[in-house]
TrEMBL record:
InterPro entries the record matches: HATPase_C_sf (IPR036890), Heat_shock_protein_90_CS (IPR019805), HSP90_C (IPR037196), Hsp90_fam (IPR001404), Hsp90_N (IPR020575), Ribosomal_Su5_D2-typ_SF (IPR020568)
Superkingdom assignment: Bacteria
Keyword Nucleotide-binding carried by entry: yes
Binding residues for ATP: 32, 36, 77, 82, 97-98, 169, 339
Protein name: Chaperone protein HtpG
Presence of the UniProt keyword Transit peptide in the record: no
Length: 631
């Protein structure tokens, strides 16, 4: 048998189109060819189970091999094989009316899995690296004759008698000069490990040496001998293909270690398994995420029928869960024709919603089952929950029952619990409940202590995402405001009907104000003399809550007006406690220079308590302190 002809396409050469538009990453060819071999193998198993193939299945392994001298790379299987007529049908009739229509038809392909799952475009990716491709095949059908197909990358092909004696297909790639890197064992093993690590049919790539028992020596100690065995590079039954009831915690942990050998153990995991209205399996792990913004995206791997597709899953997985690790496998995820990226589709949104619901259910279950253990995990999982509440309305509705608010004493409260705790005492004169919080308990200890003297509670909000979480809490909680504990003096943060009057006269207040303005000599510091409890500090330096929050949001990427506020110079409020004994002493001091020195010292102490005293100002403060002690 010998037949020559032209591949049935109406464009001069399909291969440059494939290279340029479909497959930007050349290593994809190996995924496509091995996947095709696996498909062919599974089809013969299916036919056998249906009784349509009555022969011996034999070894159903797929083998990848290469010959550096001949510059060939071969993918062999023992699948269904093809007849000469099937070669013409599946290989030659790539029937497109032209390059333009070809691109239009398949760049938005809805059924790309089917296009690629059969011999066709996936097969033609071979020409990205080969100047000639041979296909040597024998069909499973009784009486079938072996056939060989050869093509040099043009539209011309040749079909001749093949020499294969067993069912299946060999694809031999004659590697071109530009692609000889694909004749390197290390390179090929890396590609196979990336794309074929969990394929459902054993993939052989060379051999390896193992030790096996070989009796005992004269002293009765066990002996071993080295044997050569096939090197099977894949795990054909990864845990996501099994039922959760078959698996132990150790199975999940071992799989995590296999995927992420350098990572800490995960906090917990979620096994995904749904077959309606779409097919989806997988395991998602919650990693330990510390208080830095450890945005390690692209840790979730997307598979389609155990073939690795991509680790870019932003459309499938909700934004707030992009920090999770694990795998998702779905044949229903619509891919472009090269399987390189996702297409917009209703199933993607359904899957996204399903994953959101599963995560919410899991967190709710953990919270209800063991509150103490959940609280211990909160420093790690709090980021996921808060991020989810900010970005996903449906998740917010579920998470409001298990989100936790920690205070500076390391106590944890749900939203309802915290409202009950502070609602009465921390309500201001206008009926607003004020939640005080700190983003740095050590630095803001002076202000926290002032709040605690009034039996107020202070929350701990020290993660960059908390700026946005606080804004959402104020939006969602009725008549509730959040104020950072150092945003003002405590009496102004939660103003009550009863206030402390200043003992200073109007003239004395004016004198004190002018004295401090002269001593500070900074336009960014706005002095105000007020009446406070004599036990409070003589001077307090604060930044307005609104301004500070806008600046914090600008630092974490807020745009619009937040960027405007972020670019404004820092302005502070200097609150002078007219009822403090130091202020009385200053007024009684006759030496003008000493008066000013005391005012500056009190102001610098306030800066020091905020960690704002640095450089030459700090040196001056130290020297002034020594002088005052000596006096």
């Amino acid at each position: 048998m010998q037949e020559k002809g032209n591949i049935s396409i109406h464009t001069e050469n399909i291969f440059p189109i494939i290279k340029k538009f479909l497959y930007s990453d050349h290593e994809i060819f190996l995924r496509e060819l091995v996947s095709n071999a696996v498909d062919a193998t599974q089809k013969v198993k299916r036919l056998s189970s249906l009784g349509e193939f009555k022969g011996e299945l034999g070894d159903l392994m797929v083998e990848v091999s290469f010959d550096k001298e001949k510059k060939t790379l071969t993918i062999s299987d023992h699948g269904i094989g093809m007849t000469a007529e099937e070669i013409k049908k599946y290989i030659n009739q790539v029937a497109f009316s032209g390059a333009t229509e070809f691109m239009e038809k398949f760049k938005e392909a809805k059924d790309a899995n089917e296009i690629i799952g059969k011999f066709g475009l996936g097969f033609y990716s071979a020409f990205m690296v080969a100047h000639k491709v041979e296909l040597n095949t024998l069909s499973y059908q009784e009486g079938a004759q072996p056939a060989r197909w050869t093509c040099d990358g043009s539209t011309e092909f040749e079909i001749t008698d093949g020499d294969r004696t067993t069912r299946g297909t060999d694809i031999i790639l004659h590697i071109n000069e530009d692609s000889e890197e694909f004749l390197d064992e290390h390179k090929l093993r890396g590609i196979l490990d990336k794309y074929c690590r969990f394929l459902p049919v054993p993939i052989k790539f060379g051999t390896k040496t193992e030790r096996e028992p070989d009796g005992e020596d004269e002293e009765g100690k066990p002996k071993y001998k080295e044997i050569t065995v096939d090197d099977i590079i894949n795990n054909t039954t990864p845990i996501w293909t099994k039922s959760p009831s078959e698996l132990t915690d150790e199975d999940y942990l071992n799989f995590y270690r296999e995927l992420y050998p350098m990572s800490e153990e995960p906090l917990f995991w979620i096994h995904l398994n749904v077959d309606y209205p779409f097919n989806l399996t997988g395991v998602l792990y919650f990693p330990k995420v510390k208080n830095e913004f450890e945005i390690q995206r692209n840790k979730i791997k997307l598979f389609s029928r155990q073939v690795f597709i991509t680790d870019e899953v932003k459309d499938i997985v909700p934004e707030f869960l992009m920090l999770l690790h694990g795998v998702i496998d779905s044949p229903d995820i619509p891919l472009n024709v090269s399987r390189s990226f996702l297409q917009a589709d209703g199933n993607v949104k359904k899957i996204n919603n399903y994953i959101t619901k599963k995560v919410g259910d899991k967190l709710s279950e953990l919270f209800k089952a063991d509150r103490k253990a959940y609280e211990e995990k909160w420093p790690d999982i709090g980021l996921f929950v808060k991020y989810g509440m900010i970005t996903e309305e449906k998740f917010h509705d579920k998470a409001k029952d298990f989100v936790l608010l920690p205070n500076v004493k390391k106590e944890y409260f749900t939203l309802n619990e915290y409202k009950d705790k502070v609602g009465e005492l921390q309500t201001d004169k206008d009926g607003n409940v004020i939640y005080l919080y700190s983003n740095d308990a050590a630095k803001q200890h002076t202000f926290i202590a002032a709040a605690e003297r009034k039996d107020y509670d202070v929350l701990e909000m020290n993660h960059p995402i908390d700026t946005h979480f606080i804004a959402q809490l104020e939006q969602k909680l009725e008549k509730t405001q959040l104020k950072r504990v150092d945003a003002d003096i405590i009496d102004n943060l939660i103003p009550k009907e009863i206030t402390v009057e200043s003992v200073l006269s109007e003239d004395q207040s004016k004198e004190v104000k002018e004295l401090f303005e002269k001593a500070i000599n900074k336009t960014t510091m706005n002095v105000d003399v007020i009446g406070l409890n004599p036990e409070e500090l003589p001077v307090t330096v604060t930044m307005d809550e609104f301004m500070r929050r806008m600046k914090d949001m600008a630092k974490t990427g807020g745009g619009g007006m937040m960027s405007f506020y972020g670019n404004l110079p820092d302005n502070y409020k200097v609150s002078v406690n007219g009822n403090h004994k130091l202020i009385r002493r200053m007024l009684e001091e006759s030496d003008a220079a000493k008066k000013e020195s005391l005012a500056r010292q009190a102001f610098d102490l306030a800066l020091l308590s905020q960690g704002m005293l640095t450089g030459a100002d700090l040196t001056d403060f130290v020297n002034r302190s020594v002088d005052l002690i000596g006096a």
